[in-house]
Structure formats: structure tokens, C-alpha cells
User: What shape does this take?
Amino acid sequence: MKRLLIAGVVLAATFAGAGPVLADPVDDTLEIDGTPIITRTAAPEGHPFDELYSGWLFRESETRDLSRDSFENPGMIAVEDGEALWNTVMGTEGKSCATCHEDAAVSMKGVGAKFPKWDADSQKPINVELQINKCLTEQMGAEALPFNKGGQQELTAYIKHQSLGLPVEMDLSQGDMQSWWEKGKDVYYTRTGQLNLACASCHETAMGKMIRADHLSQGQVNGFPTYRLKSGLTSLHQRFRGCIRDTRAEQPKAFSDDLMALETYVTWRGTGLSVETPSVRQ
Amino acid sequence: MASKPRIKVPKSASAGEVITIKTLISHEMESGQRKDKDGNPIPRQIINKFTCTFEGQMVFECDLDPAVSANPYFEFNAKVPSSGTFKFTWLDDDGSVYEAEAPIEVK
Assistant: This one.
């Protein structure tokens, strides 16, 4: 009965909202433990959408509630594991992340919201995962973490979680970021695979429609690494690869130039949305 | 093995109010039934007891057995008569004791 009532309320809210399309993003606001989260915002200049929506608005009410309470959020266990790693000495220099950066709540606040950044050494954009590897190899005398292994996702989730609620803001004026942005845009709009789909086919053209039982979002990346109900903690490049696999195309390697360009472009598409890491998604 | 436990207790309540307490601890809860790659049994290591006290008075107590999943989560209700501190303990098979506490103010 309660479910029916809730369904009624949602229906009423939807009809009272912008348009009578059942699959519109829900009219709801997110606050995580008192931190307000921006789930809708005006798009930056040159963006194909007028308004940006966090993927949170496209999920069922039960899934949305898991995000609301950091206690209920299963992704927070990974964040705690990341905190333990932050304080663990790694490599021959006898240093942990905390040796230099001390309290992550202070030193990492807002940091995750500004990646990917330009890395002058490699002349490429760098994301949080690669920045961790750079610290490990150049400062700590340790081996770089292989993709999704050795706590890479947990540490990334911990670092990004320190920016919870802060808006995503990228600086495209650094180095060659603008040309990587252009390259990422090409990747985004290029149809690939036997199904001949581009990112834009689902996340732009068909945004808000149902693809079987799944509600297509704008494909925003503000909540990564995200906790997916079907696969647990999921890194951004794992998600990119999964999507590309589903178009039945060759999967580019994680952190390859194609995916770094795509990360640069897709992150820009979410400018102004709050960092939600670790978000809970389908 | 286990990380810092997470607890959620309201900061304040009115006298006699029934509040909800949530706790979660990260722990493998190795049941002792599994075997490693070479076929040797992995020794059991679980949290076998959880208690919650309020100013020395028992509020909630629970024995845990090997069938309990990893990262045990408890949610229970308590009535608070006055301001004080909830103390939580988790006992590990290896003898470690994990502790946490949370104050509550009764207005």
C-alpha cells in the first residue's frame, strides 16, 4: 500500500513538473549527511544540453536513498579501505600518502573536483588514479598500481570523497587540455562497434528514455568511482570499457589516450555538478 | 583486520524518546569453512560478540556465529533516560577488542 502511495506521489509530482513524460529525471533534492549536493545545474557554454542532471535523478527511490545516508551507502566501505591505504607506508622511501599530504580532509578537499588536470611531465592529461601512481613511483619508491588493482579504486574513492558536494570544475586552459577536449569530443560522437553506437546515441539523443529496464541518464561522471548494485565499486575507465563492450566494439585499454581524452571531455560535460563519490547507481 | 567501526547515534534527543542506533564494522568474518588454493582450511576468524552499553547499563548484546556475512551491521532502538554515552564493543576471535563510543544529549 505504501509503495502504491509513493508511486502516486511520484506520478503526481512528474505531471506537475516540466513535462508529462514518465521517464523524466525525478524532482528530488539530495543532501548527504547535511551536505547539499548539486544534482541539477545550468550547462556551461557550448554544451549540447541546457541543464545538467546527475545520474542520481534517474535512479529508483530505493537507490537514491542509499546515496542519501553515508551509513547506508555500501561504497563507504571502500572509502574506509582507502583511508587505511592513505595511512599505509608503501615503497622504499618509507612514506605513506599521509607523510606528505597529512590529513586528507584538509589537503585533499576540492582536489578531486579539479581532475583531470594537465601533466606537464608526460604532456598528457592526468587523472586521480594516474596521479596516485605518479606519487608512488616518483616520491615513494613504490611500484605503480595496475588498473583496478592494489586498492587503486579505494584510494581514488577516498581522495574524491574529500570533495563531496563541491562542484566539478576543470581548467581547460592548462597546457594542451583544449586539444584533448576536442579529441575526447570526437570519441564521444564517433559510432563504434557492431551496434554502431556512440556515447551520444544513448546519453544525449536518447537521454531520459528507457532502454529495456534501465533509465538512460546523461552519463555524468561526477560520482565515480561509483558503487554499482550489480558490480560493487566501479572505476570510471572500467565503466567506459563496459559501455564500449556493450556496443560490441574493441575496448580501448584503461588510461589509454582515447579514454583519457574521453574522461577529459565527459568530465567537462558535468561542470558544476557536485562530486558525489561514492555514488550509488544501478 | 577490522577498520574503525562506524556508528550513528543522534546527537540529541528528548527524555524517554526511542532513538535508532546503527553500527557497522568492516571485518572479513572468515567462517572457517573455506579452503585456500592448496586445499588447506582457512582458520576461522570472526567477530563473536557485540555489545552496546549506556552509562554501564546493557542496552543490546548479541553473539555472532560463522554464518554471519562480512561487515556485520546492527540497527536497534533504545530509550534514553538522560544525557550520557553509548559504548560499543566488538570481540574478535583473535582476542582483539574494537571499541567506539558516542555521546548523546537529552534536552
About this structure: Chain B has one domain: 6-106. The longest strand of chain B covers residues 97-106. The interface with chain A takes residues 3-4, 6, 8, 22, 24, 26, 71 of chain B (CB under 8 Å). The mean pLDDT of chain B is 92.
